From TrEMBL:
The protein's name: Fatty-acid amide hydrolase 1
Coiled-coil segments on the chain, per record: none
Enzyme class: hydrolase
Keywords: Hydrolase, Lipid degradation, Lipid metabolism, Membrane, Phosphoprotein, Transmembrane, Transmembrane helix
Domain Amidase: 105-572
GO terms for biological process, alphabetical: fatty acid catabolic process
Residues where substrate binds: L200, S226, I247, G248, G249, S250
Originating organism: Oncorhynchus mykiss (Rainbow trout)
Keyword Metal-binding annotated: no
Gene: LOC110524068
Keyword field contains Phosphoprotein: yes
Family: Belongs to the amidase family.
Active site positions, chain numbering: K151, S226, S250
Length: 587
């Protein structure tokens, strides 16, 4: 009898030995699972190494190209080029005072220098040199010769749009996204992709593929997210114009943390076609694509360039509404609503001071300021925002994180996401009496219990939008001034403080256009006042918040400007007024 016959005799025989059979099966299954897990992690590691190699190759080739250009064009005044605003740069490019080649290589050189300090880039787009050679054919474009950085999730042909998750690696885009196509048609040169947090659903900026991005003003601080690479690059001087996306503050938070201007338009004012996401299909809290720049005029010029017939043809779902320059240029006094504390997350001392100073300047300029508050904010945050985001019980987000490591900046945030629904409910009941806000949030993470429940939740969102707009009309407001999250947090705190996004995510829920303008810097007095910060609830989140923003002296602080849906130009006009008043104050 050979070995196999002996094995069969022992296992099966005349009377099967089920104990032995089950033990052998269990051992075999366990070994198989271990092998499959090892194999998956090995494949993930290889994917990450390939992505890192592509990044390094692109950086090295870009560095060589810059070196060669500088050797053949020693007369290039790089410092002058980098000092120009987008409007002035565009004017000099069109007038021929500056060449696209000189501008392009100046910004690539600066980008390489900033990336060495901050790790804000995921890949230099080497195809941009080919576009540069043919740039003369787009001289009539509004952004002729302007180098533009783009967030990593924005599709560019031949390149990954991973959203920082491993399952999206090695899936290069088969074509340009609509935004990239329109930028190219308008003469802009997309030249680099910038870093994001893993899954995009965080306002930190690190992932297992490309690593951690640092704040340009203080490396101990995060640049924010999810458009954190854009914020860091523009704030560090490596880009004059960038494109980001915003589903909870993802343009506005990094703009605030990095001291630049950022604008979240009304959802679908700009096309999202060809961009990648880890939450596609979620409809309660809407995402928008928008510009990030050093000043408000730069944002407006970008919007004007993108809102053209070419975009409306490429994506017929985008309403064909060109940029209204007349509204943007108006100067009549505005009736402005304002609030300093939304009642959910108490602002830091510097946030509150920045708002009060802005209010005083606006009043002195002849504008009317009216107290305003968002109704039932706690209800909106828990039942509309969190429950809407978690409509599937967080299953989609968690599925995108499979197959690889979870970034340290995201680990704490996702711990409750993976708990069974029953466990979430039990924890909510236990926590609520002690920490009402945290308990309510835990219950909201259960998501919708059925399709009927989800439809009811969508209807509640719609009703709430109209409730807020009715209050807006009652106060006869043109626009709204409110605090903007800041200053920049210490690393790894955003994942522990999702509560703080109430100042930004509400305007994704409401689908109101919103933008940020830097107006001040954290003072020693702000830091001293922060030592006595208690928050609105005095719970764990309030205690963590104080730790998150401490050590911020000298960091930028912004305010947020908001308008009603589709009044994007009015929002930008309000932002420009705030910017003008603070510039005049500094003179």
């Amino acid at each position: 009898m050979d070995r196999m016959d002996n094995f069969e005799q022992v296992i099966f025989g005349a009377e099967p030995n089920w104990t032995v059979i089950l033990t052998a099966t269990a051992c075999g299954t366990g070994a198989l699972m271990l092998f499959l897990n090892w194999f998956r992690h090995k494949q993930s590691w290889k994917k990450i190494q390939r992505a890192k190699a592509r990044k390094e190759t692109s950086l090295q080739r870009a560095e060589l190209a810059v070196l060669q250009f500088n050797e053949s064009h020693p007369e290039t005044d790089t410092s002058l080029i980098l000092s120009l605003s987008l409007a002035e740069l565009s004017k000099q490019l069109k007038g021929g005072t500056l060449t696209p080649e000189a501008v392009f290589h100046s910004y690539v050189e600066k980008t390489l220098e900033v990336n060495r300090r901050l790790n804000c880039c995921t890949e230099v787009l080497l195809e941009s040199w080919d576009q540069l050679e043919d740039i003369g054919s787009h001289k009539d474009g509004l952004l002729y010769g302007v180098p533009v950085s783009i967030k990593e999730n924005i599709g560019y042909k031949g390149h990954d749009s991973t959203c920082g998750v491993i399952c999206k690696l090695d899936l290069p885009a088969t074509g340009d996204s609509v935004l990239v196509e329109v930028l190219k048609r308008q003469g802009a040169i997309p030249f680099v992709k910038t870093n994001v947090p893993q899954s995009l659903l965080s306002y930190d900026c690190g992932n297992p593929i490309y690593g951690l991005t640092l704040n340009p003003h203080n490396p101990q601080k995060t640049p924010g997210g999810s458009s954190g690479g854009e914020g860091a690059l523009i704030g560090g001087g490596g880009s004059v114009l960038g494109m980001g996306s915003d589903i909870g503050g993802s343009i506005r938070i990094p703009s605030s943390f990095c001291g630049i201007c950022g604008f979240k338009p009304t959802a679908n004012r700009l096309s999202s076609r060809g961009a990648s996401s880890c939450s596609r299909g979620q409809k309660s809290v809407l995402s928008s694509f928008g510009p990030m720049a050093r000043d408000v005029d730069g944002l407006a010029l970008c919007m004007q360039a993108l809102l053209c017939d070419h975009m409306f043809r490429l994506d017929p779902t985008v309403p064909p509404i060109p940029f209204n320059q007349q509204v943007y240029q108006r100067s009549k006094p505005l009736r402005i609503g304002y609030y300093e504390n939304d009642g959910y997350a108490m602002p830091s001392p510097s946030m509150g001071r920045a708002l009060r100073e802005t209010k005083a300047l606006l009043e002195s300029a002849g504008h009317t300021l009216v107290p305003f508050s968002l109704p039932r904010l706690s209800y909106a945050m828990h039942e509309l925002v969190l429950r809407g985001f978690s409509g599937d019980g967080c299953a989609t987000m968690l599925s995108n994180l499979k197959g690889g490591p979870v970034d340290p900046s995201l680990r704490v945030q996702i711990i409750p996401y993976g708990l069974p629904r029953t466990v979430k409910k039990i924890l909510s009941i236990l926590i609520k009496p002690i920490f009402p806000r945290i308990g309510a949030s835990m219950e909201s993470l259960c998501g919708a219990s059925s399709v009927q429940d989800l439809w009811r939740q969508h209807a509640d969102v719609e009703d709430y939008m109209h409730e807020v707009m009715a209050e807006w009309r009652r106060c006869e407001l043109d626009v709204l001034l409110c605090p903007m999250m800041g200053p920049a947090y210490n690393h790894n705190y955003p994942g522990k403080l999702t509560s703080a996004v109430s100042y930004t995510i509400m305007y994704n829920l409401l689908n109101f256009p919103a933008g940020v303008v830097p107006v001040s810097k954290v003072t020693a007095e702000d830091e001293e006042e922060l030592r006595h910060y208690k928050g609105n609830y005095g719970d764990l989140w309030d205690k963590l918040y104080r730790k998150a923003v401490t050590g911020g002296e000298g960091l930028p602080v912004a305010v947020q400007c908001v308008a009603l849906p589709w009044q994007d130009e009015l929002c930008l006009r309000f932002m420009r007024e705030v910017e003008r008043l603070f510039r005049e104050k500094k003179k």
